[in-house]
Amino acid sequence: MLHSLPNFFHKNQRLRLIALLTTPVLWLVVAYLGALAMLLVTAFFTIDSFTGNVIQQFNLGNFHDMLTDAAYKNVVLRTLGIAISVTFICSVLAIPMAFYMAKIARPRSQKILVALVLTPLWASYLVKIYAWRTMLEPGNGVLDWLLGPIGINSPGFGGPAIIIGLSYLWLPYMILPIYAGLERLPNNLLDASGDLGAHNFYTFRKVILPLIFPSLVAGSMFTFSLSLGDYITAQIIGGKLQMLGNVVYQNFSINLPFAATIAMVPVSIMALYLYLVRRTGALASM
Amino acid sequence: MHKKRLVSLIAVASVTALILAGCSSGSDSASDSGVPKVDMMKELGAGEGQVNLVAWAGYVENGSTDPNVDWVTGFEKETGCKVNVKNGATSDDMVALMKTGEYDVVSASGDASLRLIYGGDVAPVNTDLIPNYADIFENLKMQQWNSVDGVAYGIPHGRGANLLAYRTDIVKPAPTSWSSVFDVNSPYKGKITAYDSPIYIADAALYLMETQPELGITYPYALDQAQFDAAVEVLKAQKPLIGEYWGDYLKHVASLKSGGTVLGTTWQVNINLAKGEGTKVEGIKPTGGSTGWSDTWMVSSKAKNPNCAYMWMNHIASPAANAGVAEWFGEAPSNAKSCDLTADKNHCATFHAADDAYWADVYYWNTATEACLDGRTDVKCVPYAEWVKAWSSLRNS
Questions:
Q1: Where in chain A are the domains?
Q2: Same-domain check for residues B252 and B388
Q3: Start and end of every ABC transmembrane type-1 domain (chain A) (predicted)?
Q4: Buried b / exposed e along B83-101 (16+ C-beta atoms within 10 A)
Q5: Which of A219-233, A269-283, B292-306 has the lowest mean pLDDT?
C-alpha cells in the first residue's frame, strides 16, 4: 500500500496540502497564538487576595494597577531605554565589523571571522552572564583590576552592567544579518560612488546605509525584542534594578493575571515596532 | 483564497477551543471563607517508589552538598521511595509550585501554610500515621499556622530567626540591631542586602515597633493602613542603601564571600555555607527581636505518591533526621528527642529549642489578612495581596 501513497497525493492536491501543513499550522496556532491568546485572556482575570487562586472573572483591575502606579511606568521606560541602548550599541559595533568581514577580509579569513562571531553562541547564556558578574564585581572584579590603574572603575551592578551584558550577548545576532546584507551589496556600487567623488563617510551614508537598512532592521528586531523580554541578565548583574521581565517573574507565582498584564506590554511594544518597520518597507525587501 | 479562509477558520476554532479548555479546567474557585473539604488519609499503603518535595534549601540533603550531610539516602534505601526535591526561594514560590499539583509534600512556612490550606492545595494530616509526631514539642503542635479548627494540617519541622549577617572583617563595630540596615547614613551604603520577598515588609514593621512606638504596632503581620504605609516608607528610604536584594541563596552566599554584600538579613544556613568557604561572616539575632519561621511539612491534596509522602513526613520528623536538618540549616529542631542526637551537644541550647523566652520576640512569618491578626477589630488590616503589590511597586520604582 505504501508505494501508492505518492500516487494518491499526486491525484489529491488538496489532501497533500493539508497533510503538509497540518503539523506546522497546529504548532503555530496552538503553541504560538494559543499561548498569546491565553496571555491576553488571563490579563483580565483576578486573584483571591488570600489564597492567590485565579478567579476567572472579567476585571480591569490589573490594567488599572499597572497604569496608575508610577513604578510600572518607570520600569517600562527603563526597559525601553535599555533595549534601545543595546540595539544602538550593537549596530554601532556590528556595522564596521560586518563591513570588514564582508568587504575587506580575504575569503579565507572571512570564513574564520564568521566562525569566530558565532563561537560565543556555543556557550550557555548563564555561563556568559555569570562571567560578566565576575568581571563587573565592584572592588575586586576583573574590570577594576584591569582598568583601575588608569582610573576607570567598573560601573558595578545596575543599568550600565545590564546594557553591557545584553550588548555582548546579542551582538552576533546583529552582525550576521548585516554581514549577509553587505555580502549582497555589489562592490562596484562602492567604486562608482568613490569615482564620482564621494568621501568614505558620504558613501556610507548615501549608498551603504540605505542598502543595508533591511539587514539593520532584521538585526534590531533580534536585539530589541530579546532585550525587551530578558530578565535573567537583570537578575544576575542588574543589582537591585528590575526590567519588565523581572516584574513578570516576580508576579507570576503570586499574581498570575497581573504578570500576564505586564507581559502584554513588551508584546504590544514589539507589535508596534513591527508595524512601524512594515511602514518603512524594510520587511518587504528583507 | 479558499484555502486561506480554511486555515484561518481552523486557527480561530483552535484558539477558541483552547481558551474554553483553559477556563473549564480551573473553575474550582475557593472564594468562600471556609476551608475546602479535602479527605484525610485513612491508612498507610505500600510506597509508590518516589516522592516529590518542595522544600527550603538545606532541608533535603542527600550528601551531594556535603558528604557528611545526608538524611535522604538511608530513607530511600529503607522505603524504596526515591526523593526528588525542588527548592523554593520564597514562600510565594512554594505556594505557586504546590498549586501545580506536581508535588506531594512541602515544607511550608507560616506565610504559606494558611494560604495552602484555604486554597485547598494541602490535605489534613492523619497524625496517627506518623509515629514520630508524638515526640514533637507540644507548643509547636496545633498552632494557628498548622491547624484549622482542631484539625492538623502538617508536621512541625523546626523554627528559627532571620538573622543579621555581617562581615566581621569589614563591618566594625559589630552591629547589634536592625537599625544598622535602615540607617540612611550607613557607611556600608550599597553593600547592604535585604530578602527579596513581600514578607520583608514585616522586618521594617518590626524595626518601627522598636523605633516608633507611637505607631502602635504590636505584631508585624497585623498592620493597618497607616502602619503599613510607614513600613513601606522605611523600605523606600532603605532602597538606596541596598546593593542587591537576595532571593537566590547561592548568589547571596557568593555575594557575602566576595564582599559585594557586607551587612543584611540572612539565614543561619547561608552563614554556615559562607563560613565553609572561608568567609569571615557572622549572623546574630539583634536586640529588639527578629522575624523568623516555624515550618510545617504538609501533604498535597493532589499527591500522586501519598504513601511515600507520609513515610517522608514521618522520617523527617524522626529524631535523627530532624537533628540532621536542624544542625545543617541552623534552626531549633521540633522533635524533643533530636537534642540527644545532634553532633554538637549544645545545639539545642544554642538554638533555644525549648527556651520559650527566646522565642518571645521572634515573629514567625504569617499571612496578613484583612481581619487583624493581633486581635484589633476597630480597624482593617492590609491583606497580604496588598503587601505583594507594594513590594512589586517598591522593587520597580
A1: 69-280
A2: yes
A3: 76-277
A4: bebebbbbbbbbbbbbbee
A5: A269-283
Per-residue model confidence (pLDDT) at position B262: 92
Contact between B299 and B104 under an 8 Å Cβ cutoff? The reply is yes
Q: Are residues B148 and B167 in the same domain?
A: no
Q: Enter the DSSP assignment of B335.
A: B
ω into B306 cis (within 30 of 0) = no
User: Both B65 and B128 in a single domain?
Assistant: yes
CB A132 within 8 A of CB A237: yes
The per-residue pLDDT for range B70-111, each reduced to its tens digit, is 999 999 999 999 999 999 888 888 998 998 899 999 999 988
Full residue range of the structural domain in which residue B139 is found: 50-159+294-352
**CATH number of B211's domain:** 3.40.190.10
CB contact under 8 A, A253 and B96: yes
- Nearest-5° Cα angle at B227, B222 to B231: 100
CA distance B164 to chain A (A): 19
Confirm whether B130 is domain-assigned. Answer: yes
Does B42 score more than 90 pLDDT?
no
Taking CA–CA distances from B252, the nearest residue in chain A reads A236
Nearest CA in chain A to B119: A51
Q: How far apart are CA A123 and CA B4, in angstroms?
A: 41
In a domain, B86, yes or no: yes
Interface test with B, best of A53, A80, A153, A237 (most B CBs within 10 A): A53
Which positions in chain A touch B248 (Cβ < 8 Å)? 235
With cell 522586618, the residue in question is B203
The total of other beta-carbon atoms located within 10 Å of residue A261's CB is: 28
Measuring CA to CA, which residue among B51, B39, B24, B141 is closest to residue B105?
B51
Q: Give pTM, 2 decimals.
A: 0.80
Contact in structure between B285 and B291 (CB atoms under 8 Å): no
Residues 6+ apart with CB under 8 A from A36: A267
ipTM of the complex: 0.75
Cell 524522626, residue?
A: B318
Is residue B28 pLDDT above 60, yes or no?
no
Our count of domains for chain B comes to 2
Instruction: Measure the CA dihedral B260/B263/B264/B266, to 10°.
Output: 80
